[in-house]
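note to self: dont lose this again. the chain is below, predicted strucutre after it. 321 aa total, dont forget to put it in the shared folder this time
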Amino acid sequence: MTDLAITANGLRKAYGDKTVLDGIDLSIPAGTVFALLGPNGAGKTTTVRILSTLIAADGGSARVAGHDVATAPDGVRTAIGVTGQFSAVDQLITGEENMLLMADLHHLPKQEGRRTAAELLERFDLTDAAKKPAATYSGGMKRRLDIAMTLVGDPRVIFLDEPTTGLDPRARHTMWQIIRTLVADGVTVFLTTQYLQEADELADRIAVLHDGRIAAQGTPEQLKQLVPGGHIRLRFTDPTAYRTAAGLLREVTRDDDALALRIPSDGTQRALRTLLDHLDDAGIEADELTVHTPDLDDVFFALTADTGPAGDTDQPKENAR
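---
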């Protein structure tokens, strides 16, 4: 059985009369990417804060890297790294000095700290900028430095809370590659993001938070199958073939002007093969076939229909810092 890096059972948290988490359960295998999605105020950042021991839950239990977050917080802290949506980089000092400061915080011997800093700066393509003040770095460079600082302690679990907020598309794709490399090295990544494409690209499993509860969770493909609207579109150039196919197939939506048929489908290989076999048996050949499946945007809006757009803050404004 795959080792679990993170488990949570019945986690609850409230701020005054506002319940942010209303009993959530999580099971996250080691060496995977888990993405937590949800609208503004759904509880994403609060979940990260509880699992990283920054705040205490009001109820329930959780374990991270084998340690109970309530009774063994020091064990959790030695096993994790946390990178928030706002960089922890000190912009008044150089990239190298930021790394060495982090090495000191982890009580590494001076020589080992310098070696670790140099290796990570090289790994994240920051060697040429190492002697420059971090204030001169681009947004993408600061993010890379932030994650490099997180890796000084060799964490096995990393919490990335909105790690690509504010980055341009090129820098975002660079960050995605960094995350994939971390997971390939066996690190578990707990990701919160407001970019649904990011979750689709990176996550092995996704959970959607809504009103403090898990509305749904599963692989990206499993979640997409929760939403109706998937279909196969057939287009013909021969009007006779079009009419024959329309009469043969069930539950077809016709577009007589375009000579196109829309057939409901879950988008699976089996459904596509069944349709094609049916057409082949009748001697019908479409000129164009397109498979349309719902994306994570469809899933997100279907599961959180009565709330606003995705955001990055869970606490009421008066509690936010």
